[in-house]
Every structure is written in structure tokens, then in C-alpha cells.
Amino acid sequence: MTKMNFRKLFLTTTVLALTFILAGAQFTSAQEALRNRRATSSREGARDNAALCVRIEQFNARIDERLRELRAKLQERKNEREERLQARRDEHKERRDEHREQRDAKRQEHYDKLAEKAITDEQKQALAAFRSAVEDAVSQRRAAIDAANQDFQQGIKDAVNARKATIETARSNFMSSIDAAQAQALADCQAGVAGPTIAETFKAALKAAKDKLKSDLQAADKIRTTLESLRATRREAIKVAIDDFKEALQEAKDDLKAALESDARESEEEEEE
Fold first, then answer.
1. What does the longest C-alpha to C-alpha distance in the chain come to?
2. Is the torsion defined by CA of 127, 129, 132, 134 positive or negative?
3. d(CA 79, CA 75)
């Protein structure tokens, strides 16, 4: 999912860059038309140059508007992704808590059944020790699993934020390059630079910005390798937690069994006496 989101961001921004290139071509055509209509008199040349500057300002305004729309859409998508992620986390926590409540209820049923068989004080003490050992093992297992899941989620968050920062820097540099190209085009116009020259310079600047953006995005750290490592670490931590729990549970059962058998032998000896 994360990879798909970054791919959408890359495609969206690249399409915008290509749109600017196409717009630059249209810009060139407009300047060619002005050049063809340009009269030989200085007065008509000045009037054409003024029209060119106005056209550049209008073109820059359209670019700025599209950039604002793009930023708004990207922010909207970001908010939607974060809401979906939070909803999934909440759903997972709800299922986990429900499952744990069910397991707690089943253990309590087991304790109650054992309590019915505990007659002597020694048996009751053995059962209390067994219950305490099991509950401690359950708490430790849950804490270890919760910590593993928390570390996993934090690792994902750190990796995603690092990639987002890289992409945001690339996008910010791209926007700055666009702004610089716009400002240069207007400055050249006001300085009386020929329209075709302005257009070619503008197109070249846009293409360079787009190529730099593409290169920066490709150089951003990939998430997949990090996710695989995080999953493996979490899987191992959960396995250790479960194995430790099974060992502690078996030890508690053995202790209970030994205590009950010992108490039974003592009872038999007393009866023989």
C-alpha cells in the first residue's frame, strides 16, 4: 500500500511536470505568433513585448493555480491514508482485546474446575501458586507481543517518514525550480529578450526540473526491504514470547501436578497410620 501511494505521488508530480513541458511548447507557439506579427517599427515592437510580458504573467498565474490544486489534492490523499491506517489499527486493537477477553474467560473456567477438586489447604495453595504462575506468564507473553508490534509499527512509521521527507524535499526543489523558471522568463521579457529565446530557456528549465525530480524520487530509499526486515524481527520476537510462555506454562503444570501428588501421598500415609 505504501509503495502504491508513493508511486501515485511520483506519477502525479511527473505528469504535472510533463504538462508544464507541453505548456512550454504552447508558450513557444504563442511567442512565435507574436514574432511573426511584430512590425519593424520600434513602437510596435515595444507593444508586442508588453503583450508578451502580460502573456507570461498570465501563464505563470495558471501554473501557480495548478500547483496549489496539486498540493491540496496531495494533502487530501495524505489525510485519507492516515485515517485509513488509524482505522485499521483501531480495528486490530479491538479484535486483539476481544480475543484476550475470551482467553481470560476460558482460563477462569479452568481455574474454577480445578478449584472444585482442591479440598485440602495444601491443594488450594498449590492451585493458587499455579494460577499466579500462569497469569504471570500470560502477562509477560502479552507484554512481549505488544512490544514487538509497537516496535514494528514504529519502524514502519520511521521508514515511511524518512521516505516522505526525501520525496517532500525533491518536490519542494522541483517547485522552487518552477518558480525560478517563471521569474526568469518574466525578467527576460522585461529586459527585452526575444520571445523565442525566453520560450526556449523556459522549456529547458522545466525539463531540467522534471529530470531532477525523477532522479531524486528514484534515489529515495525503498520501503519494501525495510518492511521485510521489520516483519522478520517481529516474527522472531513473537516466537520467543510464545516459546517462553509455553515453557513457563509447562513448568507451572508440573509444579501443580507434583504438589497434588505429594499431598495425595501424605494423605495415604496418614490413613495407613
1. 136
2. negative
3. 6
Handedness of CA 52, 55, 57, 59 (dihedral sign): negative
Q: What is the mean pLDDT of the chain?
A: 81
Residue 184's CB is within 10 A of a number of other CB atoms, namely 15
> Is 34 or 161 the better-scoring residue by pLDDT?
161
251, 230, 227, 229: which is closest to 140 by C-alpha?
251
Burial class (CB in 10 A: 0-12, 13-18, 19+), 244: middle
**In whole angstroms, what is the distance from residue 166 CA to residue 160 CA?**
10
Quick one: angle between helices 121-190 and 223-272, nearest 10? 170
Angle between helices 2-37 and 195-219 in degrees, nearest 10: 170
Q: Judge whether 6 and 163 are in contact, CB under 8 Å.
A: yes
- Compare 234 and 186 and report the one with higher pLDDT: 234
In this prediction, residues 211-230 reach a mean pLDDT of 86
Q: Where are the domains of the chain?
A: 2-272
- Coil, helix or strand for 273? coil
Give the count of beta carbons closer than 10 Å to the beta carbon of residue 148.
Answer: 19
Buried b (16+ CB within 10 A) or exposed e, 111-132: eeebeeebeeebbeebbeebbe
Burial class of residue 68, CB neighbours in 10 A (0-12, 13-18, 19+): exposed
Spatial neighbors of 130 by CB under 8 A, at least 6 apart, are: 114, 252, 253, 255, 256
First to last CA, the chain: 75
Query: Kindly report the CA angle at 51 between 47 and 54, in degrees rounded to 5?
Result: 140
Residue 22: per-residue pLDDT: 44
- Nearest Cα to 183, choosing from 273, 22, 64? 64
pLDDT over threshold 60, residue 9: no
